[in-house]
Write a structure and sequence with these properties.
The chain has 137 residues and is mainly alpha-helical. 45% of the residues lie in helices and 0% in strands. It contains six helices and no strands. It binds heme C. The site of heme C (HEC) has 27 residues, from helix 3 and helix 4.
């Protein structure tokens, strides 16, 4: 085991046992990191700095309210005055469509009215994780 590659004291009879929990922890943190690559908490602070100029979770502003947006159809807040393009788009908001929307709304739905893009893919993933969390999905 040679100290599991960690700077441990010279090998003693019990060293292999001492290493096991450390190895397990390392393996678990890798698995955990993969399963939850997108970070909703980071997404929340990105949302506050980038999106709340136009959106909020619970009231319509320049853009429509966002709570529940994950899983609902584009343009479905009846009180909000969407562009005709979004209303007739028939898109359902999920990881894939939200990612495309945030990367380039005009490419996904030509004629839409959201003048904002998120260029960084990791930022988009975290924002989507946050929107998903706030939609109980
Ligand atoms: C400059 C104002 C503005 C900013 C900033 C903005 N949006 Fe929007 N957003 C809008 C407008 C306006 C619409 C409605 C577009 C339409 O009807 O064509 C919209 C629509 C949306 C929709 C579709 C909602 C629905 O009910 O179908 C999502 C999702 C969305 N925005 C997410 C975001 C996120 C996430 C951010 C932050 C990264 C953001 N927006 C930043 C103005 C903005």
């Amino acid at each position: 085991m040679a100290g599991c590659g960690l700077p441990l004291p010279p090998i003693s009879p019990g060293s292999a046992m001492k290493c096991t929990p450390l190895l397990l922890l390392a393996v678990l943190s890798v698995i955990g990191g993969r399963a939850d690559a997108a970070d909703a908490a980071r997404g929340e602070s990105l949302y506050e700095t980038r999106c709340t100029g136009c959106h909020s979770l619970d009231s319509d502003r320049i853009g429509p309210r966002h709570r529940g947006v994950y899983g609902r159809r584009a343009g479905s807040i009846v009180q909000f005055d969407y562009s005709a393009a979004v209303k007739k788009s028939k898109i359902a908001w999920d990881d894939k469509s939200l990612d495309r929307w945030l990367a380039d709304p005009e490419k996904l739905i030509p004629g839409q009215r959201m003048g904002y893009r998120v260029d960084n893919a990791a930022d988009r993933a975290d924002l989507i994780a946050f929107l998903r969390r706030e939609s109980d999905k």
